[in-house]
Design goal:
With 263 residues, the protein is mainly α. 61% of the residues lie in helices and 4% in strands.
């Protein structure tokens, strides 16, 4: 093989067969694996164990839907303007996934993986967590994966995810450190800073061996499903036009009021 040869094992096709990760799509996969198992296969190159299947499925499900978030509104409004391009509407919503909404699994996983990469097995995780929190607080930086504006004192999603990870023997040092970080942050700040859904996702995905750079992708997979769901509801029960018209009406009214007040 030449150094310049291009190689990918993701998939290939002939006129009568399709292979995906070395499996025959029609013979080995269709009707035999779930979408979440297929996602695991695509990401890792192997089929999941029964425990991995159950936990990974929950990681994809947990962020599918969260109500009328800015991402959902962006999707609905984009679809209103370009109904011929469903994919653009979903993409518009996904572009809003970041450090404020749904995207912090990446930051949490990065923090945990970097902290534990060279840590000895006997490392004191509580002490490590206190150091992480102190360093972040000292420079007024956010600690990813903890805290939630609504779900206090507990984000109800995190304990369920952690329990599944424990039940299927997946929870390890990354989960333990994430929980210690939450405790250290609460002790230092005096505020309620529970592990949130993306913190749990990042910790569990790390214990499953996934690179932190892929963890936001799990949120992308789940939320893409939810955004298609918002378009489906928009078709049945449209609200995007009303959202647009109300915003336009109110901002115009308030602008006129301000002009009147200033002569």
């Amino acid at each position: 093989m030449r150094a310049t040869d291009l190689v990918s094992g993701m998939g290939r096709s002939t006129p009568d067969r399709i292979w995906v990760q070395g499996r025959d799509l029609c013979r080995d996969l269709l009707g035999k694996v779930s979408l979440s198992d297929m996602a695991w296969l695509e990401i890792t190159g192997r089929e999941p164990t029964p425990g991995e299947s159950k936990v990974f499925d929950a990681l994809l499900v947990v962020l599918v839907e969260h109500g009328m978030t800015p991402m959902a509104i962006a999707t609905r409004l984009t679809y209103l303007g370009a109904p011929e391009s469903l994919q653009a509407a979903v993409a518009a919503g996904l572009c809003g996934m970041g450090t404020t909404f749904a995207g912090t699994a990446e930051g949490a996983a990065k923090l945990l993986q970097e902290a534990l990469r060279d840590a000895p097995a006997e490392a004191d995780l509580a002490e490590m967590a206190r150091g992480i929190v102190a360093e972040r607080f000292a420079r007024k930086a956010v600690v990813p994966g903890i805290g939630h504006p609504l779900h206090k004192p507990v984000d109800p999603r995190a304990p369920v995810l952690f329990a599944l990870a424990e039940e299927h023997h997946i929870a390890g040092r990354h989960v333990a450190l994430m929980q210690e970080v939450s405790r250290a942050a609460e002790a230092s700040s005096g505020k309620s800073l529970p592990v949130n859904a993306t913190g749990a996702l990042g910790a569990i995905a790390s214990d499953m061996g996934l690179d932190w750079r892929l963890c936001r992708g799990l949120a992308v997979i789940g939320r893409a499903v939810g955004l298609v769901g918002h378009i489906a509801e928009e078709l049945r029960q449209p609200i995007a036009r009303e959202v647009w018209l109300r915003v336009e009406e109110e901002t115009a009214r308030n602008a006129a009021k301000g002009e009147d007040e200033h002569g």
